[in-house]
Design goal:
Elements: E1 2-5, E2 11-14, E3 19-24, E4 28-32, E5 37-40, H1 44-63
Antiparallel strand pairs: 1-2, 3-4, 4-5
Length: 95
């Protein structure tokens, strides 16, 4: 999330992955994928820089995330002749 400031001074966070476009005219407008529009104090360049920093942060966190071990991936065996649904039976019942 990036934190931006409304014209009245209140701050709010927005998910940069949901921002469709940003434009200045002269105020900066953030338009999200669902059509919501927000007018913010930050310039277009500042918002773009915040988004770049956020994405770099996410990538750096993902790079340092430990690999999961002990759960090897495997192929699902083909259905046997007695299986009418075509879907493989689970190896263990759901909890």
């Amino acid at each position: 999330m990036i934190v931006v400031t409304r014209l009245n001074g209140t701050r709010f966070a927005v998910n940069p992955d949901l921002i469709e476009r940003i434009h200045e005219s002269p105020d900066t407008h953030l338009v999200t994928l669902d059509g919501a529009a927000y007018v913010v104090l930050e310039s277009l360049a500042e918002v773009v820089e915040m988004i770049a920093e956020y994405r770099a942060y996410v990538l750096s966190k993902a790079r340092n995330f430990p690999a999961v071990t002990g759960y090897p991936l495997s192929l699902v065996p083909p259905a046997g002749p007695d299986d009418e649904s075509g879907a493989p039976a689970p190896e263990s019942p759901r909890k």
